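User: Design a sequence. Structure:
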């Protein structure tokens, strides 16, 4: 088995490679432009490519920001703990000076105040500890929201192409010039399905960089969404086989 840098090649097949996803998208976009240069589906592919490049940049550009946020939150936690300890020590000294050690019952108000301070400090510490994860989650969810929107745009492109118009019994009349034939429509459906698959893979790239449960759930939702859309496309492709009973050059708007 060949190795690279002392590591087995198997180690390079356990994660999605953004460059490979981008290369696959470029090949698909080239085929779309070749077959349908005047359609806008290629522009949607360009937008998907921009999102994939954004995901690539986020891994490197966000690293310094994440380190700063992490360090700032940890420094704030340390300062908060120090302040709480100083407040507790000061309260004990004040109580010892005013109440004295013999009157234990008078210490209850100081104990209650100290417990409240510890509780609120714990809440603040938990909030500060989750700040880096929430910042990273917000950026990732913005990207995933964009991918979800692009998936719906691709779906709208195929929704306007109805295979029923190619069936022999369709009575809607002839389409306008420049419309798609049965063979062209089949390719168009294929490209829409492939583009939806790449959208799903782009969402999976976000999951490669995060273990946040909210992010992972959103990625799963996008994968389910694109799979459902592709299923509808393949149902339309199956209807195209029925159109073979009619004229093969029947146009479609």
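Assistant: Done.
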């Amino acid at each position: 088995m060949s190795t690279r840098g002392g590591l087995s090649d198997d180690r390079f097949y356990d994660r999605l490679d953004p460059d490979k996803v981008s290369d696959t998208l470029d090949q698909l976009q080239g085929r779309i432009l070749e077959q349908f240069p005047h359609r806008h589906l290629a522009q949607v592919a360009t937008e998907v490519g921009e999102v994939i490049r954004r995901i690539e940049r986020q891994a490197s550009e966000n690293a310094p920001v994440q380190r700063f946020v992490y360090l700032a939150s940890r420094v704030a936690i340390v300062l908060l703990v120090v302040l709480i300890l100083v407040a507790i020590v000061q309260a004990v000294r004040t109580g010892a000076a005013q109440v004295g050690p013999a009157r234990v019952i008078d210490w209850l108000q100081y104990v209650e105040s100290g417990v409240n301070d510890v509780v609120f400090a714990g809440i603040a510490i938990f909030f500060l500890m989750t700040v880096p994860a929430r910042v990273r989650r917000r950026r990732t969810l913005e990207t995933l929201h964009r991918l979800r929107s692009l998936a719906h745009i691709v779906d709208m492109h195929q929704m306007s192409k109805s295979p029923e118009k190619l069936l022999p019994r369709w009575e809607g009349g002839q389409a306008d010039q420049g419309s798609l034939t049965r063979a062209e429509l089949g390719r168009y459906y294929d490209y829409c399905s492939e583009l939806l698959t790449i959208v799903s893979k782009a969402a999976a790239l976000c999951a490669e960089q995060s273990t946040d449960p909210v992010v992972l759930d959103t990625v799963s939702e996008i994968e389910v969404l694109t799979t459902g859309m592709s299923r509808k496309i393949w149902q339309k492709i199956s209807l195209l086989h029925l159109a073979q009973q009619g004229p093969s050059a029947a146009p479609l708007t």
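Helices lie at 18-35, 41-98, 108-159, 182-208, 213-242. The chain has one domain: 16-245.
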